[in-house]
Amino acid sequence: MTDYVTALQEAIRFMRKHDRFLIVTHVNPDGDTTSAALACALLLEDLGKSYCIVNEGETPEKFSFLPRFSSIKDLSKDIFTETFSHVIAVDAADYKRMGDVPRLFADDVNILNIDHHPTNDLFGQINVVRADAAATVEIMFELLKAGEFTLNEQLAACIYTGLLTDTGGFRYANTSPNVLKIASELLGYGIKPGELAERCLEEITLAHILLLRRALQTLKITHRKLTASLQVTRDDMREAGASGEDTSGLVNYCRNIEGVEIGVFFHETGENQIKVSFRSRASADVAQIAKELGGGGHARAAGCTIVGSLAEAEAIVFEKISEALGVQADE
Ligand code: 5GP
Ligand code: MN
User: Fold this and answer.
1) Does residue 298's CB lie within 6 angstroms of at least one atom of ligand 1?
2) 297 Cα to the center of ligand 1, angstroms
3) CA dist 158 to 59, 127, 257, Å?
4) What's residue 2's pLDDT?
5) For the chain, what is the total number of helices (H) and then of strands (E)?
6) Region 134-145 average pLDDT
7) Are residues 172 and 74 part of one domain?
8) From the alpha carbon of 28, which atom of ligand 1 is closest?
9) DSSP SS3 for 233
């Protein structure tokens, strides 16, 4: 058996053997981490186990149609009276990606780490990590099959949603034959692909558009037109009435410009705290750039957080991009 298949079996044993699980999604949760957590919750229910799903902050409302969405707790708002010895982290590339949630871990904690990031540092006692999976839900599907769980419409909705969002609607290079095979099987369970795509990919908030209008004023084309970047300040966020989830997708406007190889989005999330999102078109490994700056991700989509002002973060990032592309920012 391969290490991956063995890890899947260990994961199933872990879920069967224990109870009172803490399922953790990554900071700034997206469709994949949220769907993977909810799929995991449904599998635990199937085993008669109890669980608590927690994110460090809010989970985007756009995923509220998913089963058990309302049971996801917000560490910054909800009150917790217990610690957990059995943790399942989904789509978290490293320990830091769980944010403050580890404060709910008991001293004797055992972590099952389920993820698809090539930069995953295997922080769990059990690590089910497959970097060539398009999404963490693809691994959840394999876990479901390996554990001989029964697929149903609710599970199908979760898994399909994670595939849909992490492949950008089955368009990115990670759209493998396996992804489409799984999606095809899931469609047999009554889920509605048009409705899911509308909710997850098409519909945008007014705040997102107001923020885009502001962000576009900051557009910079650098590195011989190979890089495009946008910035958003805390004032922009306030004036657009935007929350974190309204920034989602802004980075794609940069990467999508004809001829641009790297798109960058700088988001001032706090005083001297800049969240940076990277997207690349074809050749630049932005996971490597993000990793060198303390973050991580995938070759085509990655991120990190930099301590400093927007101008300082920009200088640091532009320098790293110069090294990666072999082109100066002002060329
Ligand atoms: P986004 O730019 O959409 O926040 O993230 C793009 C990708 O990079 C996602 O796969 C996300 O999980 C990963 N990512 C974003 N920020 C970080 C970070 O600070 N650390 C790590 N390890 N991965 C990140
Ligand atoms: Mn993912």
Assistant:
1) yes
2) 5
3) 15, 21, 32
4) 85
5) 11, 12
6) 98
7) yes
8) 4
9) coil
> 30, 56, 250, 262: which to mutate for ligand 1, most atoms within 8 A of CB?
30
Locate tokens 């060539």: which residue? 132
What ligand is nearest to the CA atom of residue 114? Answer: 2
Q: Is the pTM of this model over 0.70?
A: yes
Q: Is residue 330 part of a domain?
A: no
Asked if 111 and 8 count as a contact pair (C-beta separation under 8 A), the reply is no
The answer to whether residue 331 sits within a structural domain is: no
Secondary element (H or E) of residue 165: helix 153-166
Confirm whether 33 is domain-assigned: yes
Reported as a single tens digit per residue, the pLDDT across 26-60 is: 999 999 999 999 999 999 999 999 999 999 999 99
Boundary of a domain, candidates 202, 225, 240: 202
- Identify which of 113, 138, 246, 277 to mutate to test ligand 1's pocket (most ligand atoms within 8 A of the CB): 277
> What are the tens digits of pLDDT across the range 217-244?
999 999 999 999 999 999 999 999 999 9
Q: Are residues 153 and 45 in the same domain?
A: yes
- Atom 15, ligand 1: which residue's CA is nearest? 303
Compute the Cα dihedral for 250, 254, 256, 262 and give only its sign.
negative
Determine the pLDDT at residue 1.
67
